[in-house]
Each structure stands twice: as C-alpha cells, then as structure tokens.
TrEMBL record, chains A, B:
Coiled coil: none annotated. The gene is hrcA. It comes from the Bacteria. One of its GO terms (molecular function) is DNA binding. This is Heat-inducible transcription repressor HrcA.
DNA sequence: CTTTAGCACTCGTTTCACACGAGTGCTAAT
DNA sequence: ATTAGCACTCGTGTGAAACGAGTGCTAAAG
C-alpha cells in the first residue's frame, strides 16, 4: 500500500517526466513538490515506489522514470480528466461546421480534426450497427459496356463501383433484375442478403437473365466492400515528431501497420466495436505488436440506432493523459452529436 | 576535355559508389578497373576529375565521391540503359494481368508495381488529353434526399459524388434537366462545359427547374474534380530505407510534399505533362524544394488519342541509373500498351 | 611526355584514461 | 519518521594517442 506522500511523488514524477522527457531526481522533486520534505525523504519514498515496480532507473545512478506499471497505476487510480477550455470546444465545433454529404466524410474528418488538435495520430472508425440493412441498389449504365453499381445501406453508407460487362445486357432485362433485388432484398440485413445470394436469388434471376453469373459477381463484390469496416487515419506523419529518438525501422513498422487497412487495425483498437468509456492502453499491452514508447487512447461514441463507432489517439507514452482523456471524452460527444444531426436530416 | 581513361575512372567511381555507398580510393580503383595502371596514375586522373568538378572528397584525405556535376556528366554522356531481363518483363506483365474496370485503377496500380520492382518510390499520373470531353452525366436518386451525380469523360474517367438536396425535386423535373445537359453539353470539352455553365445553361434550365442553383452547384462541383489531375504514389515508406542516414525532418518534409495532392507534385514532375523521353533530374535541380541526396527519373507514356501521362521514380542519388532507366523505358511501354488495350475494349 | 614507386602528410575513427556531476543508497543523528 | 552527510555509481564530455585509408608531390624510369 502506498502512503499519501508516495502517491504524490509518483504523480509528480509522471508530471515532470511528461513535461521534460528527462528522468526525475530527488532534488528536483524537492523543489517542485507542494510539501516541504528533504531530498533524502523523497529518496526513501522513491525506493518504495521502485520496489513496487512503479518507477525505474535508466541506469544505476540516474533519476527515475515511470514504468509501464507506474503509468498503469496512475491511469487506473490517479488521473482526473482535465476539463477542456471553451476555446478548444469552440475549435472543435468550428471544425465540424461544414456541410457533409456522406456519413463517411464526417468520420474521416473527425480523425483529421483530432490529430490537428493534439499533434498526435488519430484513428476513426464509422458507427457500425450490428445488422446493417440494405436500403437500395441501383445499376446505372454508363455506355461503353460500363455499368456503375450503387449500394445504399441504412447506416448511411453509400458504396459504388464501376464494372465492365462483356456483352451488352439489354437494359430491359437489367431493370427487371434490379426490381427483383429491390423487392426481395431491401430491408434485410447484409448478412442475410449475402446468404440468399447463394441460395434462392440465382434461380429467381434466371427468369429474366440468361446468365445471372455476371450480375451476381457484381452484386456480391460491392456487397462485400459495403460490409467491411473502413478506418480513417489523421496525422500519420505526426508519428515522426513524437517518435523522434526511436529508430527508423520502428517507425516504418508502425506506419505500415496503420496503413494496412482492415485486420490488424481492428486488433489494435481492441477487437470488435463495443461501447466503452475512454480507455488507455500502453505500448506493451497492445496487440498485434508491442508498440514500445507509445500508448493508445480509445473511446467509443454512440449514435443511437445508427450504431456505435470508435475513435482513438496514438501518441507517446509520455502524454499529458489528463488533458487527452478529457479532450477525447468531449470529442466523442461532439462527434456523436454531429452524426446524430446528420442522420436526423433525412431520417424522419 | 577528358581522356579515355579519365572517363573510365569516373564511370568506375560511380559504379563502386553506387554499390558500396562509400567513397572510392585509388587503390580500390586499381583493383577494379579493367586496365592495369598504378594507383599513382589513377590518383593523377582523379585530381583532373576533381579539377573539372566531377568528383569531390568528403574530407581532405578521403576517397572520392561523384559530385552533382559528375552525375550530370555521367547521365548526359555515359549511361547506357541496361536491357531488362526476360524475368523482370514477365513480372511486369504478370502484375498488369488483372481485370480493370476503371482507367484510374491501372494508373494507380502502375505506381504500386513500379515501387515494388525497384524498392523506391513511384509516382504516376494518368493520361491527360488536352481537351477532355464530357461523354455522359447521370443523376441517381438514392432516397432520403440524397442524389448521386455521375460524370463520365472520354478519357475513361468516371467521377461520382453524393449530394444532399434540401427539398425533394420531382424526378420528372430532374429527368428533363439531365436530358438538357446530355443533349447540349455531351461531346464538348470540359473547359467549354464549365464556360457554358456560367452563361447560357442556367436560362435553359430555368424552364424546367424552379431553382436551378442547387443543380448547378452539384454539376459544377463534380466537373471540377473530374478536370483535376490525380496522382498516385506507390512505396511511400520505401523512402525510409534509402534515406536512412538523413534526419527525420528531411523525411517528413518529403513525405508531406508527396502526400499533398496537386500543385507541388506537378511542379516536382517538371510542370505540365508533355512527351519526353526518360529523364533524370538530380536533387539540387529539383523544384519546389531541393531534395538533397535524392534524384527523380521521369518519363512520359503515350496512349495515342487518349493522351499522354507521366510516370516517375524517386530514389537516392546513388541509384543504379543504367538499370533504372532501362526499366522505366520498358515500363512506360507496357503501361501504354495496357491502357491502349483497355480503351480498345469499348472504343470501337 | 607518361607512368610509377616512394614517402610525408592529413584527417576521420577508435580507444583509453580521467575528471565532472547528477543522482543514489545507507548510516547515524535528530 | 525525518534529515544531514557521505561514499559510491555511472553516463557524459574531453583530450591524447594509435591506426589506417587515402592523398599530393617528387623524382626516377619508360
């Protein structure tokens, strides 16, 4: 069990180390601490903290640095989120004040805003309803054997792809096929749509199309990309600022991880989307790779019926957590509000 | 004027420096050169080359390194493009052997392929016809006040955007408006389209739409993005490998330059697209910023009536130019061929 | 006139010794 | 329980010395 003063010392070590980036010694602490005790006393406390594994030395006679466990303890018991200033709140609102035509645009921009605000790297992931439903499907002939397929889902996602069809399918036949899709499949969750695409839909299409395979390919293809998660990353290059000392290979590894869409990033954010408060995960606690010297703050945001999304902030372990946690907490609310507004616009 | 042997020495210095990355000394040259002369003789030649400004020392008693002028001389008078192996050619063809549905996909992939092939950074820019023409315009209502606008141009570009319209415009009115656009504007160069959008088109639309402003906004907006150039970059992160020694700020500067679409990149590639052979520009010769230790190989590719595009390779100054120039020369042909095939598919 | 052997010289790199100082742990006194 | 005092540790910085790859120059040989 830690004494009151030991807790104070730990907090101060974290504060000073975050500010200066240098190991903190007992004399320095004596000057900075609000209480008046000698450096020897502080040294005793520091020894206890080290025994508890909360701080370490960089070498046998250096100042102390918070350990991963030290940060963990701090985050679990000591941090108190800082309130964001009115000014900052205004900046956020201002940044969101554009007009958006697609849900994705808002989510993408939120990563941008958050990275600008913090000078770290932000990752955002659109709200995901457990069962996205199909609300519309269109095929638009563009001439020259080209067709654009458009798929609309109830979470506001609009997916489109251009396909080249081998022979000219008569637009009459297409019309009918599209009508079948819209009559039979609209309103169903995407998972069910995908299922029926393999079972009874082909035979229904058979009546109108001589070879429904091409059509099914197109539909299946675009269905797949509508169902897959999409990440947006803002401030990739900020990594270079706060990862300064570490070597270039490390940097490349992290950038590749972030740029590789799907899969790995989902794991980094902690698996499938679910509602969580603002959470901090430290480098060694992260999967799929141990991001030494980095930590990740994640938070979910809630858009009611339209699902739950995630927003995350990747930065150095020596982050001003108090401030960042407060910021993210406000930010998630703003983002949720902005998305709710967006949906309200054409939902009723 | 350089003697035959001096030229040989220069070539060998460049070759060895490219291979090893270390300054080349007279003894090393004596071993590697095909002719048998003493190191003293070589030293004399090296002194002449240094007087001519083609090589320099890193310090007063080090081996020699090619100077920018030295590389310039080499590139202007000495390089002979290496033939690409059958294997490599096969790799290129193989990489292009997918099915493409959009012209952009081919161009984007070409940057990817080229960067994989070389481990450098590749930039590609789609073929640009001096006067792109409008070949089609569609508006597809998606429900919920949303409309997707699709614009097709004769260079195979397909641009689409989703808009939210304030009040429900009757689809009847829209139909008519679209017909006007298609009847009046299709076949015209985009520049003329943009012009007429400001002059006589509004009054024509007036007959069918009560407030054509919204429509014109949409159309103008999408027209703009169809007309703007688009760059594709492959192997951004390779920069980290070949820029290893240089500092992290340099790296960030270059990455920002590359990631900032439009504008700066056009300048880097040497202004507006035109037909050029494979060209090498060295760091100090580059605009808008002096990319010390880097050099840029550019080449245009020609797709006949469908315009001329650019492809470029950014790498370290110590590149195996002979090989890279040969490669890029073959690559431009392959890319042109691939695009020609693509257009032929629905052009007749 | 060109080439070569020889040699003194330069300068970056590595190694080692040494001093400095910030910081520690421990002990004994308060 | 706190504090003053002190020996000890260890990273950092400095300077001298040894090393070696490479150079420029001179004088002899071809």
């Amino acid at each position: 069990m830690l004494t009151k003063r030991q807790v104070l010392v730990l907090k101060e070590i974290i504060r000073l180390f975050t500010e200066s980036g240098e190991p903190v010694g007992s004399k320095r602490l004596m000057r900075e601490l609000p209480i008046h005790v000698s450096s020897a006393t502080i040294r005793n406390d520091m020894a206890s903290l080290e025994d508890a594994g909360l701080i370490t030395k960089t070498h046998s006679s250096s100042g102390r640095v918070p350990s991963t466990q030290g940060y963990r303890y701090y985050l679990d018991h000591l941090v108190e989120p800082m309130r964001v200033s009115h000014q900052e709140l205004a900046t956020i609102k201002q940044a969101f004040s554009q007009r958006y035509n697609k849900m994705d645009e808002i989510v993408a921009q939120s990563a941008q805003i958050l990275s600008n605000l913090t000078s770290y790297t932000a990752i955002s992931l659109g709200p995901e309803v457990t069962n996205i439903k199909l609300t519309g499907f269109r095929l638009v002939p563009l001439g020259n054997h080209q067709v654009m397929a458009i798929l609309v889902t109830n979470n506001g996602n609009i997916e489109n792809k251009v396909f080249t069809v081998s022979q000219n399918i008569s637009s009459d036949e297409l019309e009918k096929a599209i009508r079948i899709v819209n009559d039979q499949l609209v309103g169903l969750p995407l998972i069910q749509v995908a299922q029926r695409l393999k079972t009874d839909v082909p035979s229904m299409l058979m009546q109108y199309l001589t070879s429904p395979e091409g059509f099914l390919d197109i539909f299946g293809n675009i269905l797949k990309s509508a169902a897959s998660e999409r990440f947006y990353v803002g401030g990739r290059l900020n990594l270079m600022d706060y990862l300064g000392d570490s070597d270039i290979h490390e940097l490349k590894k992290i950038l590749s991880l972030i740029d590789a869409d799907h899969g790995d990033l989902t794991e980094l954010l902690g698996g499938p989307i679910r509602q969580t408060p603002v959470q901090v995960r430290l480098g060694p606690e992260l999967k799929p790779i141990d991001l030494a010297n980095l930590s990740l703050i994640t938070a979910s945001y809630d858009v009611g019926d339209h699902g739950t999304g995630m927003i995350a902030l990747l930065g150095p372990t020596q982050m001003p957590y108090s401030k960042m946690i407060g910021l993210l907490d406000v930010f998630r609310e703003e983002l949720a509000k902005r998305l709710t507004d967006y949906y309200a616009n054409f939902d009723q």
